[in-house]
Design goal:
The chain is elongated. It starts with 7 loop residues before the first helix and ends with a strand. The chain has 27 helices and 8 strands. It has 2 domains: about 35-460, Amino acid/polyamine transporter I (Up-down Bundle); about 475-645, no CATH class. The chain is of the alpha/beta class. A hairpin with an 8-residue loop joins strand 1 (about 350) and strand 2. The protein is about 60% helix and about 10% strand. The protein has a 6-stranded mixed sheet with strand order 5-6-4-3-7-8. Strands 1-2 form a two-stranded antiparallel ribbon. It has helices spanning about 10-20, 30-40, 45, 55-60, 70-95, 105-110, 120-155, 155-160, 165-180, 185-210, 225-240, 240-245, 250-255, 260, 265-290, 300-305, 310-340, 365-380, 385-410, 420-440, 450-475, 485-495, 515-525, 545-550, 575-580, 610-625, 630; strands at about 350, 360, 495-505, 525-540, 550-555, 560-565, 590-600, 640-645.
Length: about 650
């Protein structure tokens, strides 16, 4: 396809231009604005982990004793985890595995070319692994708002203990308000996200410095030998406790998914110059507090603040966690649209909330589902500590899968030599699987939840993808008349032609749409101009307008129109029909009639189909999926559906 034939040099030039743009004027106002925006959108999630990560290590499901040696060992593990996983794996390597500037699990899947005919079995296994990773990430997206907001509101237990019984109701109320404002889009509130997050990281750093000044010895934890001694002193108990240490990396996958908003260079610069130092200072400050006063383990983050600053800190933390949740929710919208565009989920309603930024979208079904899930999690688990046990499994699983997918992308698309790629795979997979082993221990106490969610979503995605393939095969088997043959037939039969333009949406480039055949047989009439329109979603993020339209004139008033879009873009058939005037096809949009095949599916197991329950699941999803008129932006008053009954 046209979009896939862009040469490597073109992609490299585009990527290089994207990366260099923010560097051109490092002290310009534009660079500062971008940096603040990166803080608000990209780092909200990882920036709130200091509220609960260290607390869970020493006071969670598998606590280790609060001793100076253990504190130094844990701090050393936190330091090297942030350096190796976030700084090295994501910032240096994974962020380079972009699909025309876009990142995330679905971008990796697209780069692996799911429809490639080479090594079909191995390719299918990789795609299924990617779908599993994306499914697990949805589990994290459900847990993030719950654990983030709840952990912040729990600060009332320290600042105002008499308000302890209101923690759950307040958290639920904040979540309802947070999801209720999503329909307005993030554009209106986005302006305050960055400044608030900047204040948050500044406060993290200031609190950390005040703690370190009490026990400067914590700075020795930079030495990796303290991490080794930690395992030597605590054995398996110490190993299973590192599930909580992994919480410091939450947000790593989110920052990769946000790559397309800002580019690799701005995200990396803000991390190394501001976010990483602030996080490390705060973690080390909390460690110093625990060495000086182990009683602070109940809430080391809040005990690090002076008494007069507790309530303001609770309010700031709540605002920061709402921002972190906002970014995750928006990311879930974007991820769902990518899945729809890649044919892994049925069509759902997508509302554009910004005329300037295509990524600003709102998906009602996803929004309300996440809200119900988040509130249910709060009411069920009752504390952020209980939720922490569930959180790590989802994110950790996705990170391990990202390592495997990135290895293949670096080999296939980035030209890495095998020894370097294998070193990347083995080195980071050891870290990922090491953390995953510790996280698996949390399955009985909550880790089962994201596994269940991931399994259900994996079933949904794979069923939809396979069902769609079977449906295409079934449609192709129904009177597969070549379009040139059909034109010859209607010319010979002298079919009556009426004024106007008819647009038939079809997925088959060479064959006649069943809706067109059915309409001709039923009415014996056709419009004087017939445009056979096929919408192609390419495995790239965006298609430029100049590359979108492919128009071919056939005989007898027939035209073949192919519209290409990236998986981050939404089709708009009427708009692109108007743009056909540049290629000599002038259309009066008010006189266009759009014909869409309406397939009535009958579930029933076929020889090479799915099992019966998956057939029924696919039919149910297809029946309740978004109407095609909304997907293609077709005016309802100009659309007509032509029915066709098929079994799968």
């Amino acid at each position: 396809m046209t979009a896939n034939n862009n040469g490597t040099q073109g992609r490299d030039a585009e990527k290089e231009a994207l990366d260099r743009a923010p560097v051109a004027q490092p002290h310009s106002r534009t660079s500062r604005v971008i940096a603040i925006a990166v803080l608000g959108v990209v780092y909200g999630d990882i920036g709130t982990s200091p509220i609960y990560a260290l607390r869970e290590t020493f006071g969670g499901k598998n606590p280790v004793p609060v001793t100076p040696d253990n504190v130094l060992g844990v701090l050393s593990l936190i330091f090297w985890t942030l350096i190796l996983v976030i700084s090295l794996k994501y910032m240096i390597f994974v962020l380079r595995a972009d699909n025309r500037g876009e990142g995330g699990t679905f971008a990796l899947i697209a780069l692996l070319n799911p429809d490639s005919s080479e090594d079909r079995l191995g390719r299918r296994a990789l795609i299924l692994l990617g779908i599993l990773g994306a499914s697990m990430l949805y589990g994290g997206a459900m847990i993030t708002p719950a654990i983030s907001v709840l952990s912040a509101v729990e600060g009332l237990q320290v600042a105002a203990p008499h308000l302890d019984r209101y923690v759950i109701p307040i958290t639920a109320g904040i979540l309802v308000a947070l999801f209720a404002v999503q329909r307005n889009g993030t554009a209106r509130v986005g302006a305050i996200f960055g400044p608030l997050t900047m204040v948050w990281f500044a406060v993290l750093a200031a609190m950390g410095v005040s703690g370190i000044l009490q026990e400067p010895q914590v700075l020795m934890a930079i030495d990796p030998r303290y991490a080794i001694e930690y395992f030597a002193n605590n054995g398996m108990v110490g190993y299973f406790a590192i599930y909580a240490i992994f919480l410091v990396t939450t947000g790593g996958e989110a920052l990769y998914a946000d790559l397309g908003h800002f580019g690799r260079i701005p995200i990396s610069k803000v991390w190394f110059m501001f976010v990483l130092p602030s996080l490390l200072l705060n973690y080390f400050g909390q460690g110093a507090l625990l060495i000086a006063d182990p009683v602070g383990i109940t809430h080391p983050f809040y005990h690090l603040a002076p008494a007069w600053g507790l309530l303001p800190l609770v309010f700031l933390a709540t605002a920061a966690t709402c921002i972190a949740s906002q970014a995750v929710i928006t990311g879930a919208f974007s991820m769902t649209r990518q899945a729809m565009q890649l044919g892994m989920l049925p069509g759902l309603t997508v509302q554009q909330t910004s005329a300037d930024a295509r990524g600003q979208i709102y998906m009602p079904a996803v929004n309300w589902f996440l809200m119900i899930a988040a509130i249910a999690l709060v009411l069920t688990f009752q504390s952020s500590g209980n939720l922490a046990a569930a959180y790590g499994v989802a994110v950790n699983s996705t990170m391990a899968i990202t390592t495997v997918l990135a290895f293949n992308v670096l080999r296939e698309s980035r030209g890495w030599q095998l020894p370097a790629a294998v070193a990347f795979l083995i080195g980071f997979l050891i870290i990922d699987l090491g953390f995953l082993g510790a996280n698996l221990v949390t399955i009985p106490s909550g880790g089962w939840l994201p596994l269940l969610i991931g399994g259900l979503l994996f079933t949904v995605m794979t069923t939809w993808r396979r069902g769609a393939e079977l449906l295409v095969q079934q449609i192709a088997s129904v009177d597969p008349t070549n379009i040139k043959t059909f034109i010859g037939q209607i010319t010979g039969e002298e079919i009556i032609r009426v004024p106007g333009t008819a647009v038939f949406i079809t997925g088959r480039l060479d064959q006649t749409p069943p809706a067109l055949q059915q309409l001709t047989r039923s009415t014996g009439v056709l419009h004087e101009r017939i445009i056979l329109t096929t919408v192609v979603i390419e495995p790239v993020a965006k298609i430029e307008p100049a590359e979108r339209i492919e128009l071919t004139q056939l005989d007898a008033g027939f035209y073949r129109l192919v519209l290409r879009y990236g998986f981050m873009q939404g089709p708009n058939v009427p708009s692109d029909l108007a743009n056909c005037a540049e290629q000599g096809l002038d259309i009066d949009l008010d006189r266009v009639r759009y014909f869409i095949g309406n397939v009535d599916l009958l579930a029933g197991r076929k020889l090479h189909g799915m099992v019966a329950w998956r057939d029924r699941l696919f039919v149910r999803m297809a029946t309740n999926s978004r109407d095609a008129t909304a997907y293609y932006r077709i005016p309802i008053g100009q659309a007509m559906k032509v029915g066709l009954q098929l079994g799968i």
